[in-house]
Amino acid sequence: MTSPNLRKYNDTFPILGNGNYIDISSVLVGDITLEDDVSIWPLVAARGDVNTITIGARTNVQDGTVLHVTRRSTQNPNGNPLIIGADVTIGHKCMLHGCTLGDRILVGMGAIIMDGAIIENDVFIGAGSLVPPNKTLLSGYLYVGNPVKQVRKLKDSELHFLKQSAINYINLKNDYLAQ
Fold first, then answer.
1. Which domain holds residue 159?
2. 20-49 average pLDDT score
3. DSSP letter string over the chain?
4. Is 62 within the bounds of a domain?
5. Residue span of the signal peptide, if any (predicted)?
């Protein structure tokens, strides 16, 4: 597949799953894998040039988000790939850099998640929060602040919303694909 917004880096080209929506204004470069039903919204920049980016099924990456990785080095032989799980909602204008996100996560608008951070399953990260390098956020909690702090356990309704948010974006991207 050749497209101005899907670009090769060296010999590596993005790999797409079934039913993906990638807005024409977004750019995906290099070693990036999208599983099924992923949506990439306007002005997303994803560079899998010096390491890999993997985005799990039914995940949505919203407008203006930047996705990048950490290169391999003698101090960090594997670098830090960017790994995003399934059913994740990444809000507008986020920055995810060489971190790992589990499944069913909501990353609030403008949040920054740094190199080596690990976000377990079923987590809310509040808008504008900063997750420092190598920080682990435990499953089942709301985190907010700069630097991020654990605030409280998630309510059942919030846990349900994590999955519902992914479903909402699947329906929206299907509307876009049908046009």
1. 6-178
2. 97
3. --BTTEE-BTTB--EE-TT-EE-TT-EEEEEEEE-TT-EE-TT-EEEEEEEEEEE-TT-EE-TT-EEE-B---SSSTT-B-EEE-SS-EE-TT-EEES-EE-SSEEE-TT-EE-TT-EE-SSEEE-TT-EE-TT-EEPTTEEEEETTEEEEEEPPHHHHHHHHHHHHHHHHHHHHHHH-
4. yes
5. none
